[in-house]
C-alpha cells in the first residue's frame, strides 16, 4: 500500500497496520477506519477541560519548551483543541492572542487561512489524521514563515511493543510517528526542529526568512 503521508511503498506491520519504508509512518488500514459518526461519539466522551490540573500539567509538556521560543506578543491557533479549550488559555497567559479550531467542536473554517499564525499548536491530534498528507499540508500552511508549530502525539519507536501498545488501541488513533517521520516532515515542509523530547513533543520552526 502507498504511504498515506509520502506515497512511498509501505509493508505490512503488526496488528494489521502498515509501515512506510521511506518516512516510517505506521498507519492503520484505511478500510478499518471508523466512520466519522463513530469518531464523533468517541470524541464526545473525552473529558479534557481547563479546570483539570492533570490536563494542564499534560499540556505543559508542550507549553514549557514552547515558552522558550515565544515572542512577547503573538497570534496563535490551537488546531484540534477538543471540547474544552485549555492550551489557548495557557498561551494567552504568555501574551498570545489565541484562536481555537476543532473540526467537531469549534468548526470555524474561517480560521484556516494560510500564513496567518505566529504559533500553531496541535496536541493529540495528528494521530487522528486519516489523510495525513492533506492534513499536514493544511496544518503547516497555517503557520507564517518563521513561525512555530508545536505538536504533541505519542511517538512510536522500537522499544514499544506495538501489538500491546495502549496508544494504538484507541480506534480513533490511526497514524503513528517515528523519529524518522519527524525528519521527513521537517524536510518535506521546510521546517527546522527546534525541540524534540523523543517521546511525544516536537516543536518546528517554518523556514522562510
Ligand atoms: Zn511514508
Ligand atoms: Zn488521540
Automatic annotation (TrEMBL):
The keyword Transferase applies. Pfam families: Methyltransf_23. It comes from the Bacteria. InterPro entries: SAM-dependent_MTases_sf. GO terms for molecular function: methyltransferase activity. GO terms for biological process: methylation. Keywords: Methyltransferase, Transferase. This is 2-polyprenyl-3-methyl-5-hydroxy-6-metoxy-1, 4-benzoquinol methylase. It comes from Bacteriovorax stolpii (Bdellovibrio stolpii). The lineage of its organism: Bacteria, Pseudomonadati, Bdellovibrionota, Bacteriovoracia, Bacteriovoracales.
Amino acid at each position: 500500500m502507498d504511504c498515506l503521508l509520502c506515497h512511498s511503498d509501505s509493508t505490512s506491520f503488526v496488528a494489521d497496520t502498515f509501515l512506510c519504508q521511506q518516512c516510517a509512518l505506521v498507519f492503520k488500514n484505511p478500510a478499518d477506519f471508523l466512520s466519522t459518526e463513530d469518531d464523533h461519539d468517541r470524541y464526545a466522551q473525552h473529558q479534557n477541560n481547563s479546570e483539570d490540573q492533570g490536563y494542564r500539567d499534560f499540556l505543559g509538556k508542550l507549553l514549557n519548551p514552547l515558552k522558550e521560543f515565544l515572542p512577547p506578543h503573538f497570534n496563535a491557533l490551537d488546531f484540534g483543541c477538543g471540547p474544552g479549550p485549555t492550551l489557548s488559555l495557557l498561551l494567552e497567559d504568555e501574551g498570545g492572542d489565541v484562536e481555537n479550531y476543532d473540526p467537531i467542536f469549534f468548526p470555524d473554517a474561517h480560521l484556516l487561512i494560510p500564513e496567518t499564525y505566529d504559533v500553531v499548536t496541535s496536541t493529540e491530534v495528528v494521530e487522528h489524521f486519516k489523510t495525513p498528507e492533506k492534513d499536514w499540508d493544511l496544518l503547516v500552511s497555517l503557520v507564517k514563515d518563521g513561525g512555530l508549530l508545536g505538536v504533541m502525539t505519542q511517538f512510536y519507536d522500537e522499544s514499544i511493543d506495538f501489538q500491546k501498545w495502549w496508544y494504538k488501541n484507541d480506534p480513533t488513533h490511526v497514524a503513528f510517528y517515528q523519529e524518522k517521520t519527524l525528519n521527513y516532515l521537517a524536510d518535506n515542509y521546510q521546517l527546522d526542529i527546534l525541540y524534540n523530547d523523543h517521546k511525544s513533543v516536537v516543536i518546528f520552526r517554518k523556514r522562510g526568512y
